[in-house]
Each structure stands twice: as structure tokens, then as C-alpha cells.
Design brief:
Length: about 300
């Protein structure tokens, strides 16, 4: 079986879908199953991206399998007038021979909003490139040094957690903490230091130099930046929303509101340690196992 990913990845700082698919392609290449046209048996396409290209290739190779990796629902972390979900649902009906969801939360929420997934389906969480995102086993925080917090998001959408970050910027005790933010932001901070958009390598270095990762993104199906922080060995705090609880699987590392977040930070030494348990190799093998099931299902 040979696989092709119908998504143009970028090495520049970009969103989580790009980060995951770039790492997945790298793993498929390592396993010797990746192929360009026309030798692929299975094509993986992503959400609403490059659908005209997917349609063209579907017309050229109507007997091949086209697996749709669904995102969102985007209406829940953007606004209810966002029509990208409807484009995704139409593409799933017209182009897909099977459907992959990034989390059980995403599967349930998309179906509730009108998706009729093309069977068979699978829920497969994302993973990260372990050659870039890994823990520093030699890192030891210096006594009496400020604890370092990091948050990261490529999107400047307010629902990516910015109200909570601004709340911490105004209320956190910065004699005990320092806080850095990587990515795009339309919010001005007084105390949080903005690092701008970083390459994966630079982001991983900033994470390994930190103690705590915070994400307050709402209705995020499967946050790559959260997985990256966990892979780097940080203690994490994530809003109890979207796919976050599935990825962490520990209530001690989630918060329901800003007051609970601030309370947990005040006693951050008692936060449970968090580690990403699923490797990219394991995730790639889950995809390949599902592809084999689809081929057998035809």
C-alpha cells in the first residue's frame, strides 16, 4: 500500500494542521509507504484545504481511496456564520471514501452540526515530530528563579485563549512568574513577552526553557501546540473545552474558568506531570491500519 497526502505543507510557522501533516508525511517516508502520483493507493486530504486539487485527482483516479481528515467544527471556535464547515461536509459527501476525526469531541460536535460522515470512520489523535519536540531530561529549574510560562498559537482568533491570557497579564504575580507568548496576537500585553511566530525548532527550544504551558483555546479539536508542550515535558494547564481533556486525561491539568486557572498557577508545583503518550510512529501506524481497513471495505 502506498499513500499520498493532498496537502502542501510549509516549513514556515503555520497552523497545527500543517505541523501534523508535515510530521506524518515524514513518518510515512521513513516507513517507505509514501508515494507521489500516480502510484498511491490511498489519498489523504485535509478539511477544506486544496479541494479543487482533490476533485481533479478524484476524477483522474476514481477507483482510489480518498480519506478525509476532518477539522473543527470551525463554527464553534470562530462564529456560526463560518461556512467552512459546510464546505467540509459537502467534500466529505462528494469526495471521501472514509473519514478520520482528530478527537471524539470533534466527531460528536461535527455530527451534531450536520455532518453525515462517510463510513468507515476512525478517531485518531495527532502527534508531534519527536526529533523536534522532546523533553530535556537535564533541565533543572534554578532555586528561587521565577517559573516560566509559555503559550502559543498561530491564529490570532480571540477564542484561541486571548481573554484568559489578558486576564493573567493583568492579575498574575509577575514577581514569581515570567510569561512568554509565541505566535500571532491582536491583544496588547503589559507583562507577557511576545516572541512572534517561531519555527518548530525555535518553539521547541522555548518550550524546553519553560516550566508551564497554558492553552485557553475554546473548542479546539486536537491542539498540536498542547501536544508539543507535553512532548517537551512541560506541566500543562488547558481549558476544559474541545479535545483538550481527551489529550490530557487528567482533571488536575485542566481548568474551567479564569479564577480556577489563577488558583492552580498559585500552587503550580502540585500540578501533575504530563507526557504525550502516543508517538508519531504509533499514530502513522494507526492511519495505515485504518487505510488497510478502507481498502478491504471497498
Amino acid at each position: 500500500m502506498k499513500v499520498n497526502i493532498l496537502y502542501k505543507t510549509s516549513d514556515a510557522p503555520f497552523g497545527g494542521g500543517n505541523q501534523f501533516l508535515r510530521a506524518l508525511k515524514k513518518e510515512f517516508l521513513r516507513l517507505g509507504v509514501y508515494s507521489d502520483l500516480p502510484n498511491a493507493d490511498v489519498f489523504l486530504f485535509n478539511s477544506h484545504h486544496d479541494l479543487s486539487k482533490v476533485n481533479q485527482i478524484k476524477q483522474r483516479f476514481p477507483d482510489k481511496e480518498f480519506i478525509h481528515r476532518v477539522d473543527g467544527p470551525m463554527r464553534l471556535y470562530n462564529n456560526m456564520s463560518d461556512n467552512r464547515d459546510l464546505i467540509v461536509y459537502q467534500a466529505n459527501n462528494n469526495l471521501a471514501t472514509a473519514t478520520v476525526f482528530q478527537s471524539q469531541w470533534s466527531r460528536t460536535a461535527n455530527i451534531k452540526l450536520g455532518l453525515s460522515p462517510t463510513e468507515p470512520t476512525a478517531v485518531i489523535h495527532n502527534a508531534v515530530d519527536s526529533e523536534i519536540f522532546y523533553s530535556n531530561s537535564y533541565y533543572m529549574p534554578e532555586p528561587n528563579k521565577k517559573a516560566r510560562i509559555i503559550s502559543a498559537t498561530f491564529s490570532s482568533n480571540i477564542r484561541k485563549g486571548f481573554e484568559a491570557y489578558k486576564f493573567l497579564d493583568d492579575n498574575l504575580d509577575f514577581t514569581k512568574f515570567e510569561y512568554v507568548f509565541a505566535g500571532n496576537s491582536n491583544v496588547e500585553f503589559k507583562n507577557i513577552k511576545r516572541l512572534g511566530c517561531l519555527t518548530s525548532e525555535k518553539l521547541a527550544n522555548e518550550m524546553r526553557a519553560s516550566d508551564i504551558y497554558i492553552t485557553a483555546s475554546e473548542n479546539d479539536p486536537c491542539s498540536n501546540s498542547l501536544l508539543e508542550a507535553m512532548a517537551c515535558g512541560l506541566r500543562v494547564l488547558a481549558l476544559k473545552s474541545g479535545g483538550h481533556p481527551e489529550l490530557i486525561n487528567n482533571d488536575g491539568n485542566t481548568f474551567a474558568n479564569q479564577d480556577e486557572l489563577l488558583k492552580k498557577l498559585k500552587d503550580y508545583n502540585s500540578l501533575p506531570n504530563s507526557r504525550q503518550e502516543t508517538t508519531m510512529k504509533e499514530v502513522a501506524e494507526l492511519y495505515l491500519k485504518f487505510f488497510e481497513k478502507v481498502l478491504e471495505h471497498e
